[in-house]
Structures are given as structure tokens and as C-alpha cells.
Amino acid sequence: MTTRTHLCTTPLCLVFYAFAIGLLNFNIVVAQEATLSASSGDEESVEIGVDASLAEAQEVAKASPPTQSNAEEQSSEIESPEAAGDAVPAAGEAGPEDPTDKPANGEPLNAPNTSGDLNSDSGETESKDKPTVPNAKSSKNERANRKKNGSTSEDVKDSKEAEPKRLPKLGISNGPMLPGQRWRVHDMRRPRPSVVTPGKLSTYDKPGTAPSDAIVLFDGTDLSNWCHLSKEDPSQLIEAQWKVEKGYFEVSKQTGPLQTIDSYGDCQLHLEWQTPAIVRGDSQGRGNSGIFFMEEFEVQILDSFNNRTYADGQAGALYGQYPPMVNASRKPGEWQVYDILFEAPVYSLEGELEKPASVTVMHNGLFIHHARNYYGPTGGGVVPKYPALSPAAPIALQNHGNPVRFRNIWVRPLRP
Questions:
Q1: Alpha-carbon distances of 320 from 24, 263, 376, 394, rounded to whole Å
Q2: CB under 8 Å, gap of 24 or more: what pairs does 100-108 form?
């Protein structure tokens, strides 16, 4: 028996049918949107899980280098979403993957990129917006390199705001005044001494050199800084006649004393001298000569090695006034050295003596006089008195008729 169903065609039924059809279409649309949302959520969860697994694997690899078996276990544990079968295929992608899409090593072509590059050939979303975790080891190395090179970000910032370089302190400006001076203690305004290069010391075979600020009176070549005075006219200078050879000059008889062309007052004098190796004579007749400061004040030159004579007439004596403190003479024929500090006498404007002449003498490195005052011009058998003298005069070498030799003579005028 066939039962027939008849649709109601009344206006009320038509309105009901339209409402039912609209409600059905709405439920279909809602169901489709829910399906798409669930598919998208599964994909994001799979990607986050893979990224977390990769980060964990990298930390484990840093802690202990994996062996081959560990590497295989980690590779099997960290699988792609497609291989695990948990991922939902995206819209437009094929369902099951084709076995022919795998490379020779068996890994799928669309496996996650473990090199850190999240861009893929299949059009995956770039990771520009995804924050990257800084590598602690690389950051530490960068800081170490900056420290090794002497620069850090803080240093660069400080260098822009650094103060100008400070110079060494040169004293103070508020120290107490020194008695009798116009300068303070450690006065930063006080002029500093000029730099002088010392000369080289002599050896027996080779004379030394003078300091850089000295006046060389004899360098072993000529007597251009020396002269004689004419006997007829003491104001007439005559060219030096003493013999020069082999780096020294020697006293020549019948020529008179030798003196410097220029005049000197306070000064430091260095002079090397030698008496004959073959001894002739005795007492004052053996290797006799002398140095006269300002042509008036003598320091005696004599062969005093095993040679007896009066005390104030031997080598190093202030002739006729003071003997040396010790006899420092070397053997005849050996070079001997005088280093003498001479201070000229000081007179008032009225010509009265205020300070006598004085010397400090070193003979072969030994002090034989220390700040010793002259009674006046030296001479034999008299008690001297100070005449009126000029502030400076030539330095003279005595000619006593003995062939005494000289070398390496230089002078440094002393200025206050």
C-alpha cells in the first residue's frame, strides 16, 4: 500500500519551510568554520612542538657532544609533523605523501629545516616576526673580544664624554717662600735645567769627549783656541807654537807660556796631562808645569811619583799656599786627569774684595781640594795680596822647560 505525503502549501507552511532551510544553512556554515579553525590550531601546535623539540635538542648538544647512536635516537624522536601523522593537511595540499618525494636517505623532502632557516620552498611563513633566542656563548665571546680590543659599548660612550688628557704635575703654586730666593718650594713656575749630554770617559789609548755644552779647548787636532803673548807688546797675540802630534800637544822650549784666546771666570775645567816616561831631574825639575786660572791662580803640575819636594809645590798643590790632601800621582808616562771647579774672586763696586777665589780639585778621581780659598795670586816665596782683578781672564799653561804633554781639554763656564 502506497502512502503519499502532501506538502502544505498554505502561506504559514511556506514561511516555516523558509525558516527551516535558513537555519540549516547557518548550521552548515558554522560547522565549516569550526572545522577550519580546528585545522589551523593543530598546525600551530605542531609547529610550536617542533620548535621546542629542536631548541631542547640544541641545548643537549651543547652540554655533551652526541655520539652516533644518540644522534640517531634524537633524530628518530624529533620527527616532522607529516611523518608522525598528527598534522592536518593544509588547504590545497595533497593528502598522503608520495614515496618518490623522499631523498635517498629516507627523510621527507618537506621535513623541518633544522639549520635555523625557517623559509621553505613550499611557501611556508617566514619567521621574521618570531623572536629569536640569543646565543649566550656568542654573546660572551663578543664581550670578550671587545674587552680584548680595549673597547666596550660603555667605553665608546665614555670616550665621547672623556675629559682632555692631563699633563704631569710640575710642582705647586702655593708653597712657602725659600729664604734668600724669589721662588717658592716646588715652585711650578721655576725654570727647569737644560738637558746636557755627558761626554765619554777617556781610556789610556784614547781620550774621551766633552759634554754637549762644553767649550772644547783642544780636541787633538790644533791649537786654534790658544796663543802666546808678545814679549815686546803684551797686547799682541801670537799664534801658538807648541808641538801638536798624535792627538796631544807638548810644551816647546823658548816659546813662553800658552794661554786661551778667550777669557773665563767661574768655570769647570777638564784637562789630561802626562809627564815624560823617561825620568830626568828631581824635585821641581821633573815634569814641571801648571794651570793658571785668570793668569794668577795656579794648580801645580809635577811628576810627584816617588819624587820628594816641598809639600805646597807638588802635583795638585795651590802653589806656595796649600798642598793637596793626598798624593794621587800615577807613574811617569801615564796619563793623569784634573777636574777643577774654579770660582773667581768677587769685588765690590768700590774695588774691595768681597769673596776670594777658590777651587775644588779632583786628581785622577780623588778630591785633593774642596772649596779651598786662595790667599791671592800664587807665586814663589811671597805672601800674596789681592790686587784689583777683572771678573774674567785667560787660562794659561806654564812653560817650565819640561816636555809635558796635554790632551782632551774642555771648559764649561758656570752661570748662576
A1: 149, 24, 11, 21
A2: 108/80, 108/82, 108/83
Q: What is the pLDDT of residue 276?
A: 93
187: helix, strand or coil: strand
Is residue 329 within 8 Å of 304, Cβ to Cβ? yes
> Residue 386 burial by CB count (10 A; 0-12/13-18/19+): exposed, middle or buried?
middle
User: Using the 8-state DSSP alphabet, how is residue 59 labeled?
Assistant: H
Q: Grid cell 649566550 — which residue?
A: 136
Which cell goes with 239?
Answer: 799664534
CB count in 10 Å sphere of residue 178: 13
Cα Rg, the chain, nearest whole Å: 56
Return the exposure string of 28-45: e unless at least 16 CB atoms fall within 10 Å of the residue's CB, then b. Answer: eeeeeeeeeeeeeeeeee
- Answer yes or no: are the C-beta atoms of 245 and 403 closer than 8 Å: no
Give the CA diameter of the chain.
Answer: 185
- Is the whole-model pTM more than 0.70? no
- Quick one: cell of 205? 789609548
33-40 contacts at long range (C-beta below 8 A, 24 or more positions apart): 38/88, 39/88, 39/90
136 Rama sector, left if φ>0, alpha if ψ -120 to 50, beta otherwise: alpha
The CA-atom distances, in angstroms, between 365 and each of 90, 327, 328, 340 are 106, 12, 9, 11
Dist. CA 319–CA 65, nearest whole Å: 97
Residue 387 CA from chain centroid, whole number:
56
Quote the CA–CA distance of 295 and 394 in Å, as a whole number.
6
* pLDDT for the residue numbered 383: 80
C-alpha cell at 138: 656568542
What is the grid cell recorded at 28? Answer: 552548515
Which range of 116-120, 201-205, 209-213 scores highest in mean pLDDT? It is: 209-213
Check residue 274 and report its DSSP letter.
E
Residue 231 to residue 226: CA distance in whole angstroms: 16
The one-letter amino acid code at 374 reads: Y
